[in-house]
Design brief:
CATH topology of the largest domain: Rossmann fold
InterPro entries: NAD(P)-bd_dom_sf, RCK_C, RCK_C_sf, RCK_N, Trk_Ktr_HKT_K-transport
Strand content: 25-35%
GO molecular function, one term: monoatomic cation transmembrane transporter activity
Helix content: 25-40%
Number of domains: 2
Number of strands: 11
Number of helices: 9
CATH architecture of the largest domain: 3-Layer(aba) Sandwich
Organism: Halalkalibacterium halodurans (Bacillus halodurans)
Order of helices and strands: EHEHEHEHEHEHEEHHEEEH
Shape: elongated
Bound molecules: adenosine-5'-triphosphate, calcium ion
Protein name: Potassium transporter Trk
Distance between the termini: 55 Å
Length: about 220
């Protein structure tokens, strides 16, 4: 089989979640195969996917004939029909697809997906809820990524308190145990900033650390 240089994605289930993944990947220039059992859904995506196809995700023959085993990433975005989501995931893992990412509906669904080898399990409502709660609880928290139970990356808004100070002066690593990965200023992003970089009011600081330390930095440092 010929080796491809480019990444290929297949999205199964074009609801709100799968649909937005499909559109976003396509707009970033990736090759995306959009699959749904509903022909009307599929038709909505003809302009925002590389290929579209009406297929039943639990039909092994249909999946095989799509050549889905050649895809680097398959994202299963079937919500209501948990049984179909599980069966499709099982078939895809049996086909040895390296990266099968699946949307989970609940804890039970998650457990089964985990057992059958889903490579990443996503809970959009839960994860988005956490992010929204984080940004509601503080005006300073712009975005939030949970890395584990203990560690996160946060996008924090720099305040007057730190404006005009350099990273050396702030000394956040020693004081709070957190690391500033990048500084966003308008459209510009400065990745791995130098120690004498000066922070301005309203800069966005992308900070990694233990949740407790991040909280302390947010409360006391900013
Ligand atoms: P949303 O992302 O909008 O919240 P949802 O998680 O509630 O969606 P559904 O609306 O149940 O999920 O399904 C998402 C899409 O997946 C629908 O467009 C549906 O037609 C498609 N779908 C469901 N089951 C299958 C299947 N077995 N094979 C292919 N597509 C399917
Ligand atoms: P999820 O976030 O799990 O995807 P959903 O968006 O599908 O949820 P629902 O499950 O329909 O939304 O509703 C969410 C919650 O809001 C439920 O607990 C429901 O009881 C509550 N709810 C729905 N309508 C009302 C209402 N008119 N007044 C108060 N609570 C309501
Ligand atoms: Ca839903």
């Amino acid at each position: 089989m010929a080796k491809r240089e480019k990444k290929q994605f297949a999205v199964i289930g074009l609801g709100r979640f799968g649909g937005s993944i499909c559109r976003e990947l396509y707009s970033m220039g990736h090759e995306v195969l959009a699959i749904d059992k509903n022909a009307d859904k599929v038709n909505e995506f003809t302009a925002t996917a590389t290929h579209t196809v009406v297929a039943e995700a639990t039909d092994e023959k249909a999946l095989t004939s799509l050549g889905i085993r050649n895809f680097d990433y398959v994202i299963v975005c079937i919500g209501e029909d948990i049984q179909a989501s599980i069966l499709a995931t099982l078939l895809l893992k049996e086909m040895d697809i390296k990266n099968v990412w699946v949307k989970a509906q609940n804890h039970y669904h998650h457990k089964v997906l985990d057992k059958i080898g889903a490579d990443r399990i996503i809970h959009p409502e839960y994860e988005m809820g956490m992010r929204i709660a984080q940004s509601l609880s503080s005006e300073k928290v712009v975005d939030f990524i949970e890395l584990s139970d203990e560690y996160s990356i946060m996008e924090l808004l720099a305040t007057e308190k730190v404006a005009g100070k350099t990273l050396i002066e702030l000394d956040v690593r020693a004081k709070y145990g957190v690391t500033i990965l990048a500084i966003k200023r308008g459209e510009e992003i400065n990745v791995s900033p130098v120690p004498d970089e000066m922070i301005k009011n309203r800069d966005l600081l992308i900070v990694i650390g233990h949740k407790n330390d991040l909280k302390r930095f947010e409360d006391e440092g900013l």
